[in-house]
Amino acid sequence: MYEFLYGDRELSNHSLYQTFRVVFYDYKEKSYVKDVDLWVYFAIKVANVEDFTLEIESGGQYEVPQFAYKNTSLRNLVLCGCKLNPSGSVNWSSLVSLSIRIIELTDGAMGKVLSGCPNLECLELYNVSGIHRLEISSVKLRKLIIEDYMDGKLEILAPYIQHLQISGLCDQIHLCQRNVASLVTAVLGYSNFEWRYEEDNFEEEFSYLKEFLHGVAQVENLELGPWYIESPPSSRKFLKLNAALDQLDFPGVCSFLQSSSDLETLVIDWDDHDSRDLLSTYTNEDEQHRRFETYNFNSSLLHLKTIKIINFDGPLSGNKSIQPLVKYLLKHATVLEKFVIAARYKRSDVSRDYVKMEQEFLSFPRSSPHAYLAGPYCLNQLQHT
């Protein structure tokens, strides 16, 4: 691997390089454009590298040269902070992975790029803008990752993708089941919806999230960030919730469980300490308690065999959600085989509080005669199962 920084013009021994990076930390177009063109030409036309990264870190408006859109050796391409504006067709026929970061695009430019990558398998879009309709018709493109999309509405039409990951700060990303009909895994890790943190938009926000969940209702594997709303019926078999739960999040968790009649594995990752559910963002504490107390928890988890609560931190006895959650799961999971609660602490650091709470959990009634309950001491076992 070779990384070119400004001032380095050594381009010999090009046959040695399969991976090549051009990084500019302070780009000024008039002064440096010829240098960048030279390095891009070397990587694309001379060395015919397989892995190429072009990063313009700050202050730049560098436009990818037209000659760079024709290459049959590239397999992995990362473009960051530059302009993509092909005047004609694109031919990246061997490309399997494309990552576009901090770039303003157009729907037309994105369409040309995708049509010129017939073997693309993975597309990553990080903090892009300018596109509002992402149409992916390739049968081979199975993985789509979008992070920090903040440019209005984005409609996704991708009938063959199997893995969808959306995270960070995002505006309205619209899906419907027929447009993502092959989707198997969805990772929805919205960290924040600060673009709508206004009391007047509460109902609008709920409506948008419900619509989005309907779009991924058919997936087998679902991973969610720290927001919980009423979930539509789903055939999912795997569900992961990423949030440090509070008792007031309990109705949201139960809602997802009740709508997941085929669920076999549930994982709750306590790692995100700052997470709060959408409900608590807009309602006062009394209203939250009222919803919690009046929520109907009656249901049976007929296929749930494995439950893992991981990365638990802090005193178990002081957490208001862990006890009712464990009771609920043990009561309704009729075929449960393994229930593991894993603390962050190593064996020698687990406090007496954890030992005491583990004994209390063991005393809870279980509907499954085969249920095996393990407490914080099983951290190492969990990491290898």
What would your notes on this structure say?
24% of the residues lie in helices and 24% in strands. It has helices spanning 29-46, 107-115, 202-215, 250-258, 278-282, 285-294, 322-332, 352-362, 379-383; strands spanning 2-4, 19-24, 51-56, 70-71, 76-80, 91-92, 97-101, 122-126, 133-135, 143-147, 154-157, 163-169, 173-174, 185-192, 221-224, 238-242, 265-269, 306-312, 338-343, 372-374. The strands form 3 sheets. A 15-stranded parallel beta sheet has the order 1-2-3-5-7-8-10-12-14-15-16-17-18-19-20, covered by helices on one side. The chain has a 3-stranded parallel beta sheet with strand order 9-11-13. A two-stranded parallel sheet has the order 4-6. Helix 3 links the parallel strand 14 (185-192) and strand 15. It is elongated, with a radius of gyration of 25 Å. Residues 5-10, 192-199, 273-283 and 377-385 have low confidence and may be disordered. It comes from Nicotiana tabacum. This is F-box protein At5g03100-like.
Brief descriptors of the model:
disordered C terminus, 385 residues, three-stranded parallel sheet, alpha/beta, 9 helices
What is the strand tally?
20
Q: Helix fraction?
A: 10-25%
The biggest beta sheet, please? 15 strands, parallel
What is the overall shape? elongated
* Helix/sheet category: alpha/beta
Gap from first CA to last CA:
35 Å
Mean pLDDT across all amino acids:
78
Tell me the number of helical segments per DSSP (H or I, 4 or more residues long).
Answer: 9
Beta fraction = 15-25%
Helix and strand sequence: EEHEEEEEHEEEEEEEHEEHEHHEHEHEH
Q: What is the strand arrangement across the widest sheet?
A: 1-2-3-5-7-8-10-12-14-15-16-17-18-19-20
Spans of at least 5 consecutive residues whose pLDDT stays below 50 are 5-10, 192-199, 273-283, 377-385
- How large is the radius of gyration? 25 Å
